[in-house]
From TrEMBL:
It comes from the Eukaryota. This is Uncharacterized protein. Residues 1-11 have a biased composition (Basic and acidic residues). Residues 1-20 are annotated as: Disordered.
Length: 20
């Protein structure tokens, strides 16, 4: 995990965590 995340990166990990 990054210490600092952009909204784009956060959206990507959010989708990945939801299995999308």
């Amino acid at each position: 995990m990054h210490e600092l995340m952009t909204d784009e990166e956060r959206a990507q990990v959010f989708q990945a965590a939801n299995g999308n």
